[in-house]
Amino acid sequence: MALNADVSFTWIGHGTWRARSAKGKEILIDPWVMGNPAAPENLKTVDRCDLMLITHGHFDHIHDAVEIARRTKPTIVCNYEVGAWLGSKGLDAEKIIGANQGGTIDVDGVQVTLVHAEHSCGITDDNGSIVYGGQACGLVIEFENGFTVYFAGDTDVFGDMSVIADLSKFDVAFLPIGGFYKSRRGSDHHNFEGNLIHMLQDAVNTESYAKYKRYSESVRRLPPINLRDLLDFKADRKPLAIDEVESITELRKHLVAPGISLGALGPEGPQHVIDLMIDEMKSAFGQIGALHPAQARSATIRHPGALQF
Known about the structure:
Elements: E1 8-13, E2 16-20, E3 26-29, E4 51-53, H1 59-62, H2 65-72, E5 75-79, H3 80-88, E6 96-99, E7 104-107, E8 110-116, E9 123-124, E10 130-131, E11 137-142, E12 148-151, H4 161-168, E13 172-174, H5 194-206, H6 209-220, H7 248-252, H8 268-285, H9 293-300
Parallel strand pairs: 3-4, 4-5, 5-6, 12-13
Antiparallel strand pairs: 1-2, 2-3, 7-8, 8-11, 9-10, 11-12
Helix pairs in contact: 5-6, 8-9
């Protein structure tokens, strides 16, 4: 496939691609080759591989990685957990670069950046068990001549694809368009429906509160997807007066700076939940074994963000 005068691409089948870089490096992306039913026979033999890139650990993206790597001795770039698994199979650890999303790796002039993907990443081990494979990722690859591509890997659509485009300025994107789990019109709903992402982006880009309200109402009309979608606020409570609500300046003091999320609050929230749990248990059982409530609290809370709610 001629997308650039100095860089060529060959689709082997499914999510597997072979690329030849501007300086002649042979690159194999998501190596499912020999057993890939979509691969033509003349591409099922890999005699040379200088660089192997892996987006995630599912069998249809990694199945032949070990065999090909043993034979061709490539440098391998993947996430840390997939790299550790490959190392456990006897591959040369010095040739495996296990990275995290956001970091850029330079392999002899080819720049590889792992980026976000919405997908799972379990690895099927030799005995059939599923091994934790870290986070699935996409790849931004900048070749020696500056030509840049975005391999999304297996992913649902997500809003920060636009951020990846803004930061990397890629020339071509390779996107998944098929598969059993893809979003289909009239089928299962996804957390991040494509039309909802466009609505949110439009609202932000135009700074329109009216458009944001339409986006918010559309989200609320989605059927339940997560467990939290089955929960609702009790509407029979007397509302607080506005002067009883802490200011944003005070609220920020409760947040843990390294991970500001609903599950990374300061100790007051988790402590209150523990207090309520203890009160409920005391009401039901009279006491909590031999533990004093204060002991139960100190034995339960290990980190302010340990309780997720």
